[in-house]
Amino acid sequence: MALLEATNVTKTFGGLTAVNDVTLIIEKGVIASVIGPNGAGKTTFFNMLTGIYKPDKGAILFDGKSIGGTRPDQIAALGMRRTFQNIRLFDNMTVLENVLVGMHTRLRVPFWQIIASAPGVRREETKARDEARERLAYVGLDAKREELAKNLPYGDQRRLEIARALAGDPKLILLDEPTAGMNPQETDAATGLIRRLRDDLGLTVVLIEHDMRLVMAISERISVLDYGTKIAEGDAHTIRSNPRVIEAYLGKGAAGAAA
Question: Which part of the chain is the ABC transporter domain (predicted)?
């Protein structure tokens, strides 16, 4: 069953077409990747899925609901969460507080109870902190929960972003270059975590990633963008041997040699 359906989605900025008539269907429970050279439109596509940009054309359905033009917080509340290519943590908040921020769409205490410091508020705060610690323990960061986010090593900051995304109890998690800037050991650890998101938690995962070793090892479905257009789609073997994909990354000479 499809969890996410983007049909003929297009986004232009002035005279530049960043995403051109892209269709992508993501089934429940898969790990999928969107790849392509720099400037191919991958992050713009993610931004449309999560409500940061409104598509100029096309339709986006998430879990059967139309979300094209829906606000980011409303899409997050439906169960789609993401991380960013450039880490976006609250640097001067603690690790635990960053995860608590990720729960904002799930907290239901009325404003008047917060003002009055009602017992229900304290109960929900305690429950939220316990759940936040569970998310941190899952990614291996509970021992660092009181540290400021800006003081974490780079790899831990990436894991904190994932813990914050998990705080919203998502159905789908979008990871934008989750291993960018990592050393080989950190990349291996991140790869294991991504697998566990699906295998342990039953999440659907879509990632943008430039590490082709990771993409080919972990993805059940790969979609390739080039200059905003989808040029190929399939499993790792199909994508690895596709002449258009080879040309997009390495040039026409390499594509001809591969053929």
Answer: 4-252
